[in-house]
Amino acid sequence: MKRRNLTISVFLTTICALMIALGVFLAPSRANADTKTYQIGTDVTFPPFEFANNDNKYVGIDMDLLRAIAKNQDFKVNIKPLGFNGSVQATQSGQIDGMISGMNITPERKGTFDFSKPYYSSGVVMAVAPNSSIKSLNELKGKTVAVKTGTAGADYANSIQKKYGFKVSTFDDSSNMYQDVTTGNSVACFEDNPVMMYAIKQGTKLKIVTKPANNGYYGFAVKKGQNKELLHKFNVGLDNLKKNGEYQKIVDKYLKAKPNAGSSYADNHSFIGILKQNKSFLWNGFVQTLWLTIVSIFFATIFGMIFGLMGVLPSKFLQGVSTTVIYIFRGLPLMVLALFIYTGIPSLTGTKIPAFVAGVATLMFNEGAYIAAFVKGGIQSVDKGQMEAARSLGLPFGKSMRKIILPQGVKIIIPSFVNQFIITLKDTSILSVIGILELTQTGKIIIARNLEGFKVWTAIAIMYLVIITLLTWLSNWGKRRTKI
């Protein structure tokens, strides 16, 4: 009984130590400032309300309005590019203080959020390809339309789907939704009128064929019953901006300004032009991806070695713990695990978890489980007679494992470890769902500005392939070195 209690204590201590190390190593330092800073979530792929400009600064009606209100009311904001759904979940869990993302005020949402006064009124329109013959909703029967998840356009399309007999295809961002229509997979898409008008002005090959319908109002949102001071400041600041005319200037800046000023459309949208314009942004995303991979694989290796070794120790309990941990974390989808750690745990505990820490923890548990499995398998693949011979010579189990079994097992493990590093690198792309600015999230933000999905994803694919090719060569070299 004492032995079992001791092993439980060791197990819990190990997990706690890893989590503490993550927190200490990765937690951001707090700045000392008299002015209060609020964490605000947004989409940044929803022009003209929020997107990244050529200098990779988050701009748009929502962004400029929020900053102007913050200046008027003497507070600061830290913008978190989490995407619409990510912002909703992060606000609900208390990870961030509020969100502004072209969010329609609806009775259903009022049950979860407290909203500011409406700051913009908009309606939903239907857009089709330029050569399309579809001119009305009545012509959609039996066809497929595209919508963006969580938007007023999606709500409107779903509300009339049965009446007009069409199918709905859902996307996470506007550029993919537009692309689905221009490629012919969907015959139309539903989008907020100002957003659709801005996209067409920027070169998107679509045309609007219906008048705005289902008019609604956008509002700034906080978790219900919380951050009342922030909500009050937003409302007061909004009133002040409307009175002094600054509000209208912000709106006109994006809805009446001429597009592509300062350089030609071809220069901004050619493959080389996109690379030149976004080289620093892409490089930062690449560096963040590598850093995230390196830190994650470091902690995943510790996690995997501990639970892999537990699986080969002469203890049924420790073997059971190892098997259970490997089963759980290999069985959970990576996106589900990321959202559970980033939004699920804070909603239960009330403790905020930085996105980078949540991302590393996600990869540590998932990739660590795979490392544990091949560590366990590598050791078990060493002939059992090796251990029996060592024990028969009077060597204790620990020394036999350290001196004889592990050196042989490591040779088997190294190539698999390099392969796992490659897998971890690719898996970082899933963490864009919690707003980490790695390569995939960087690509989404660039595409929201120029709507050149194919060219941007081609550039990002090349960057991934270069580093993965180098790692594959390293893996093959390791395999050749371990051959006897």
TrEMBL record:
Q: PROSITE patterns from the entry?
A: ABC_TM1
Question: Where is the protein localized?
Answer: Cell membrane
InterPro entries in the record, alphabetically?
Answer: AA_ABC_transptr_permease_3TM, ArtM/GltK/GlnP/TcyL/YhdX-like, Iontro_rcpt_C, MetI-like, MetI-like_sf, Solute-binding_3/MltF_N
Instruction: Say if the entry is tagged with keyword Isomerase.
Output: no
Sorted alphabetically, the Gene Ontology cellular component annotations on this record are: ATP-binding cassette (ABC) transporter complex
Q: Which PANTHER family match?
A: ABC TRANSPORTER MEMBRANE SPANNING PERMEASE-GLUTAMINE TRANSPORT (PTHR30614:SF46), MEMBRANE COMPONENT OF AMINO ACID ABC TRANSPORTER (PTHR30614)
Q: What is this protein called?
A: Polar amino acid ABC transporter inner membrane subunit
**What organism does this protein naturally occur in?**
Apilactobacillus ozensis DSM 23829 = JCM 17196
